[in-house]
Design goal:
alpha+beta, Ribosomal Protein S5, domain 2, Ribonuclease P protein component
Length: 126
C-alpha cells in the first residue's frame, strides 16, 4: 500500500497533472507526469474507468498499478507526480506488463530532465 504522502487525493491535483503534465502512452496505460521540487515525495494517482471491466477487474488493475508504484518509491523515486490512466487492455495485462508501463513512463520523464517545469500547487491555478 502506498503511504498517504505518496498519494494524490485532491481532484484539483488530478486535473492539474493531467492537463499540464507530460503525457506518456504505454501499451496498457497513459501516464501524466509533472516534476516537483527536489526532495519532495513522489505522489501517484490512478484512473481506472468502467471501460476496463467489472469492479473486481478494475480493483485488480488498480492494486497492480499501486504495487508497481510502490516498487518505484522503494527504489528511491522522488520529486514527481504521476497519474496513471488504465486503458481497457489493462484488464487482460499481467503485473509485469503494467509495471513495465509505469517504469517506462518514469524513465522517459527522467530522460527529459529539467525540461519539465516543476508542478505548481493546484491552489496557484492553471
Amino acid at each position: 500500500m502506498l503511504a498517504k504522502a505518496n498519494r494524490i487525493t485532491s481532484a484539483d491535483d488530478y486535473r492539474f497533472i493531467v492537463r499540464r503534465g507530460a503525457k506518456v502512452a504505454g501499451a496498457h496505460s497513459v501516464s501524466y507526469l509533472r516534476s516537483t521540487e527536489a526532495g519532495a515525495d513522489a505522489r501517484f494517482g490512478f484512473i481506472v474507468s468502467k471501460k476496463v471491466g467489472s469492479a473486481v477487474r478494475r480493483n485488480l488493475v488498480r492494486r497492480r498499478l499501486k504495487a508497481a508504484c510502490r516498487e518505484l518509491v522503494d527504489d528511491g523515486l522522488t520529486a514527481v507526480d504521476l497519474v496513471v490512466r488504465a486503458l481497457p487492455s489493462a484488464a487482460a495485462a499481467d503485473y509485469p506488463a503494467l509495471r513495465a508501463d509505469v517504469a517506462t513512463a518514469v524513465s522517459r520523464n527522467r530522460r527529459r530532465g529539467p525540461a519539465l517545469a516543476p508542478a505548481a500547487t493546484a491552489a496557484e491555478g492553471p
